[in-house]
Design a protein that fits this description.
The complex is a heterodimer of chains A (about 140) and B (about 290). Chain A has about 140 residues and is of the alpha+beta class. Chain A has 2 domains: about 1-30; about 35-135, Beta-Lactamase (2-Layer Sandwich). Chain A is built from 4 helices and 4 strands; from the N terminus they run ααααββββ. Chain A has a 4-stranded antiparallel β-sheet. Chain B has about 290 residues and is α+β, with helices and mostly antiparallel strands. Chain B has a domain at about 60-85 and about 115-265 and about 280-285. Chain B starts with a helix and ends with a strand. The relative contact order of chain B is 0.18. The chains are: A alpha+beta (about 140), B alpha+beta (about 290). The interface between A and B is large, with 36 and 41 residues.
Chain lengths: ~140, ~290
């Protein structure tokens, strides 16, 4: 009787200790986070954003009309946690810049560029758009 | 003895628990590395897509495709304007490639190089797996051809001209609508600047003899002309098509019905090398 009690107690204690170790290990693993995950999400969002701007004609229209309205509207569609600006650059000169209102990146953690062409008066102009962004 | 067994069992349990945690951490780490590699692939794919979009813009072409699974056929459509709307298309093409290789390269540090010599000489888009080639005589896009194949069974042409056409001067002596079914069916929807429908032998669609060079020339008022040729064209594959505008501009939508499945890739023979990756410019995938 005494022996059985000791064995049962021993096994019970062993299960408790094993559970504590397992919990600690899983808790430790759960705390492990990829420090660049958010960065990659922002990069992907930036790429998709620039692609949309070119393919839906927003960039070309902005250059052709000299109006940044389309760019402002598109920037406003980004997730609220994303702070970003768009520059249009021709011959190394920034010809247009639009910043998302309500935030500013102290340091831009993602910078992406995409070329695009503008046709006017039977001539073609080559330029690129620069996306600079960070998470607010 | 029993105490020893319990201790060993406990130690094994602890070891297994820690091993599980270690394997989990390792898998998370590998996933991160995989994501990082994926990021490089995404960045490269983005640049290839960027350059493909530019090329399509430069050429002024749009492509779409639609499968007709019940008939095991595919319709691929090219929307275009011939000749090029640019005043100096060849030099503009050179400006674009120079811009990518010099200006854009310098700011993006992507080490992009482009081999476009072949495309400059014979600007064209090739279609896989059908062997169909949509091309031009030169970068000015003054002559458009579709180098066909046995897979082509139908051309549907919509053409809007910027000139009036003098119907009485149309030369269609070398175009014969076939009285019976052949392997090549042509549908024409041609309107001149006044919105007048242009017909060939008073017909807008029908079968033609694919072994002949069927040709028709429409003359513009006061000048200009558009020649259309289809069938067996010298130097081209079976069931080909050629449009030759002269002194006028034509907005064209050319639908080609192909025998086969809708998995189509259209690429331009411009080799782009970047980050040790090399690829043709894929301009359309379905």
């Amino acid at each position: 009787m005494n022996r059985a009690f000791i064995l049962t107690t021993d096994a019970f204690l062993a299960v408790i200790v094993a559970s504590i170790i397992a919990f600690a290990a899983l808790n430790l693993a759960a705390r492990f986070e990829d420090p660049l995950a958010n960065q990659r999400v922002l990069e992907q969002a930036g790429r998709d954003f620039l692609t949309s701007l070119e393919k839906n004609g927003t960039l070309e229209q902005a250059v052709a009309t000299g109006s940044n309205t389309g760019l402002v509207e598109m920037l406003g569609e980004l997730p609220s946690s994303t702070c970003a600006s768009i520059q249009i650059i021709e011959n190394g000169t920034v010809t247009m810049q639009v910043n998302r209102t309500g935030c500013a990146c102290g340091v831009e953690t993602v910078v992406l560029r995409r070329t695009f062409l503008v046709e006017a008066d039977s001539a073609q102009r080559e330029m690129y758009a620069r996306f600079g962004g960070c998470l607010d | 003895m029993k105490g020893f067994i319990y201790t060993v069992t406990f130690a094994i349990l602890c070891y297994l628990t820690l091993l599980t945690a270690a394997l989990y951490l390792e898998s998370r780490g590998n996933a991160s590395l995989s994501q990082a590699s994926q990021g490089v692939v995404d960045a490269n794919a983005e640049v290839f897509d960027d350059l493909s979009t530019d090329l399509m813009h430069h050429l002024g072409i749009q492509i779409s495709a639609k499968g007709l699974p019940a008939a095991n056929r595919t319709n691929i459509t090219f929307t275009d304007t011939i000749p090029s709307t640019l005043a100096f298309p060849a030099s503009e093409f050179g400006d674009w490639t120079g811009f990518v290789e010099d200006d854009f390269n310098a700011t993006s540090n992507l080490d992009i190089t482009m081999n476009y010599t072949d495309f400059q000489v014979r600007p064209r888009l090739a279609t896989l797996p059908y062997g169909l080639v949509y091309g031009y005589s030169s970068l000015d896009q003054s002559k458009l051809y579709i180098n066909g194949s046995g897979n082509v069974s139908n051309y549907s042409l919509t053409i809007r001209l910027n000139r009036d056409i003098n119907a009485s001067m149309t030369n269609d002596t070398n175009w014969t609508w076939s009285g019976s079914n052949t392997s090549l069916y042509i549908s024409l929807d041609i309107q001149d600047n006044a919105g007048e429908q242009i017909k060939v032998h008073n017909q807008t669609s029908g079968y033609v003899d694919p072994t002949l060079n069927n040709s028709v020339i429409f003359f513009g008022t006061p000048s200009g002309s558009l020649a259309i040729e289809t069938g067996t064209l010298s130097g081209f594959g079976a069931n080909s098509l050629r449009l030759l505008p002269s002194g006028l501009s034509a907005r064209t939508t050319t639908s080609v019905l192909l025998n086969g499945t809708p998995e189509i890739t259209v690429y331009a023979p411009i080799w782009v090398t970047m980050n040790e990756q090399q690829s043709n410019l894929i301009v359309f995938e379905n």
